[in-house]
Structure formats: C-alpha cells, structure tokens
Automatic annotation (TrEMBL):
It comes from Anopheles culicifacies. Keywords: Carboxypeptidase, Disulfide bond, Hydrolase, Metal-binding, Metalloprotease, Protease, Secreted, Signal, Zinc. This is Peptidase M14 domain-containing protein. The keyword tRNA-binding does not apply. The lineage of its organism: Eukaryota, Metazoa, Ecdysozoa, Arthropoda, Hexapoda. The keyword RNA-binding does not apply. It comes from the Eukaryota. Its cofactor is Zn(2+). It is found in: Secreted. InterPro entries: M14A-like_propep, Peptidase_M14. GO terms for biological process: proteolysis. Residues 128-418 form the Peptidase M14 domain.
Length: 424
C-alpha cells in the first residue's frame, strides 16, 4: 500500500517579539500563524513537531512510524502559555500530542511505542496490552466460566460494523447499577487494561471490600467504547484518538468524547474535521456515541458512571463546559478527595480532584456530562489514569497492574462513600 509521505519541520524559526506576541489572535476559531506554532515549542507542553503532506487517516497505509520525528520536553510557566498549547491541540497544524497539555515540565519517551506492542501473550493477562479480538475472546471465556454471574451485552455498534461489547456482572437481583467504560479515546490503552483488570477482580478477588462491591452492585463493563479506533491504533497509527467515520476526502473520525448531546460545542471542541477534538457535524452524529447512549438509557437503577481515560492522574467530576459548581458538586468533590487519598496509599500516585473544566480544560459534549446532565446519574467520575507526562499515552506494560490496583482501591471508596450519602 502507498505510504503517506511526511516532512520534518525545522522548529528553529525565530520567536516573535513581545509586540508580535501581543498581536496574536484571540479568537480560537482563527487559524494561528506558523510563527506562533514555532514559538509555542519554547514555552508550552509536549508535542511532536511534524507536518504531514496528507493526514494519516486519508488512506489505509502501512503502520505509521515515527523515525526521525522530533520529541520535545517543554515547560509551561504561565496560564497564557497553557491556554495557547490547548488551542494548538484543538486545531490541526501538523503537531501530534503525546500527552494532554495539563502539567508543568512534561516529557515523553517516543521509543516506547514499539515496546508497548511487544509482549502479547497467548493467555490473557495484564503484563501486556491486548488487541480487540483478544479482549472480546476473554469476555467470552468469562461468560463460559461464570454463567450464573456474567452475561454478554452489546452496548452499541461502530461505523465499520463492529459491536461495542461488554459484560454484565450480577450476583443477585435488585442491585444498583454501575456502568464502567474504557478507551472511548482509542490511543488510551491503559484504560482498557484497567477496566479488564477490575472486571477480573470483581469475579476472583477474595478481598472483603472488593467482594462487597462486586456482589452488591450490578456491573455493566465496556472495556473498549471505540472499537474501530482501537483496532486502528494496533494496526496503523498508534496515536489515533477518534472514531473512523469518513468526514470528507481528507479527514476521518470524530472525537467520541465531544459528540454527546449535552452542551454540545459549548467550548473545548473543534469544528475542523481533521482535528483530534472535532466534535462532529451534530450531536450523536457518530453511531458509536448514539448507540452507546441508547444502551445506557436502558440500564435500570443506574447510580454510578465511571469513565476511564489517560493520562494526567486526575479524578474528574462534571461538568466540562463550565467551572461553576453545579448539582451535587460539593458532595462529589468530598467523595473524590477521599478516593484520591486512598488511591495514593498503595503506590504513591498523586491525583488531583475537580470538575473537568477546572483541572484539565473546558471540554463540552462528553459522555460524563451527558450521563450526569441528561440521566441525572448521581455518582459520575472520569479518571485520567497514569502518568503525569513521562510516558503519556504510551504507558509501559509493567505499569498496568499497579495502575489498576490503585484505581480499584479508589472505586471501593467511591461506592462506599456514595452509599453513606444515600446515593444507592
């Protein structure tokens, strides 16, 4: 197949003067001049500097490689610099981010891409990342091993004709329901690995606290909410984020976590189809988000929604379109703070807690906001799992189990504290 040609940008252009910087556009829909992009390298975030003649989604090419690309470790000194980086992320200009622009002094090791792809095992486990077919085959194994407890669910469909599969774990009737979702952003492999590890613990752990939440809640578990994109990250472009629907002759995919019909396009999205944060032409334009939302609506007694992402080590609550404390903000913050304390105990991982717009950036149209704003589900949390920038989306396989262990510790606290407040 034809390989898409890329050329490397120098990134050594002259920085704008202070006067030139004051003349930069303030309208986020206005395209940034190239000199601004060059200047941003000296002051903000973490990115790979490259310009593709055609975007990687244009044709079905062989696996994308990153030989000779430049990787930068960059520091954010001021809020204005952080906002500029986030603006660049929203509008495609030849830059690929390897972690979200959230923290100071971030870095990433691009060479670990190949390391992530190695180590697949014949037996399903958590010492390696697994492709979609392995995850689905493992779900089938659970259904066979635990027929009285585990049942299959199809939570939606995809543009390329795949099923969004999962399982329901139920030890008795009448339980409140917990919905867990991973990998709605396809490059965030640690989320699928964490969700499957937690699922396994719900079935096998002998820990009293884990047994309590396993048997007293009905669990609806969807490890990969964006199957088409996830497959694409394994076969073609490791850093692909979106769905795979065709938007025009040049651009593929919609950000499935900006496409939900709640406060759609109210900030933190892009209207440019090639952008990683393209919200789509309309709410629920993507079959993935539309069918997944329809399934979630059918879940009886839904009390808790847990959404897993990477990276940044954040525990987030609604909403993404505003920093105003809405609904049960203060109770969710209290629960989240206690969960973060517990999360730190096992391996020392420090998580920040806050609403999406407060601690990461404005981001409207997310699944978390839709579940909270439309269904009024009381306990709604989104995790940005490890790490804080060293590896970003490319977290090494040896961190899967520690990440999942500490995450489950915090989930126990969320459910216990929610019960104490009467949410279940």
């Amino acid at each position: 197949m034809e390989t898409i040609r890329s050329e490397i940008v120098s990134c050594d252009k002259r920085l704008p003067t202070s006067r030139e910087q004051s003349d930069l556009p303030h309208n986020p829909r206005e395209k940034l001049p190239s000199v601004v992009l060059m200047a941003s390298i000296r002051v903000v975030g973490l990115l790979v500097c490259l310009v593709a003649v055609l975007p990687s989604g244009l044709v079905q090419a062989e696996r994308t490689r990153y030989d000779n690309y430049r990787v930068y470790k960059l520091s954010i000194a001021r809020v204005e610099q952080l906002e500029l980086l986030q603006l660049i992320e929203q509008f495609p200009d030849g830059y690929a981010f390897l972690s979200d622009p959230v923290h100071l002094n971030s870095t990433v090791k691009l060479a670990v891409i190949d390391r992530q792809l190695r180590g697949r095992r014949e037996t399903f486990g958590w010492t390696a990342y697994h492709p979609l077919e392995d995850i689905y085959a493992w779900l089938d194994t659970l259904i066979e091993q635990y027929p009285d407890v585990v049942s299959p669910i199809v939570a939606g469909e995809t543009y390329e004709g795949r099923q969004i599969r999962g399982v329901k774990v139920s030890y008795k009737q009448g339980n409140p329901a917990v919905f867990t979702e991973g990998t709605i952003h396809s490059r965030e492999w640690i989320s699928a690995a964490t969700v499957t590890w937690v699922l396994n613990e719900l079935l096998t752990s002998q820990d009293e606290a884990v047994r309590n939440i396993a048997e007293n809640y009905d669990w609806y578990v969807v490890p990969v909410a964006n199957p088409d994109g996830y497959v694409y990250t394994h076969t073609t472009t490791r850093l692909w984020r979106k769905t795979r629907s065709r938007q025009n002759v040049l651009c593929y995919g919609v950000d499935p976590n900006r496409n939900w019909d709640y406060k759609f396009n109210q900030g933190g999205t892009s209207t440019i189809p090639c952008s990683d944060t393209f919200s789509g032409p309309s709410p629920f334009s993507e079959i993935e988000t539309r069918t997944l939302s329809e399934y979630i609506r059918t879940i009886p007694n839904l009390s808790t929604y847990l959404d897993f992402h990477s990276s940044g080590q954040l525990l987030m609550i609604p909403y993404g379109h505003t920093r105003e404390p809405l609904d049960n903000y203060y109770e969710l913050m209290e629960i989240g703070t206690k969960a973060a304390v517990k999360l730190q105990e096992r391996h020392g991982s420090v998580y920040q807690v806050g609403n999406i717009a407060e601690i990461i950036y404005v981001a409207s149209g997310s699944s978390l906001d839709w579940v909270k704003g439309t269904l009024q589900t009381p306990l709604t949390f989104a995790y940005e799992l490890r790490d804080t920038g060293e590896y970003g989306f490319l977290l090494p396989p040896e961190q899967i189990i520690p990440t999942a262990e500490e995450t489950l510790d915090s989930i126990v606290v969320i459910l216990e504290e929610g019960k104490a407040l009467g949410y279940h």
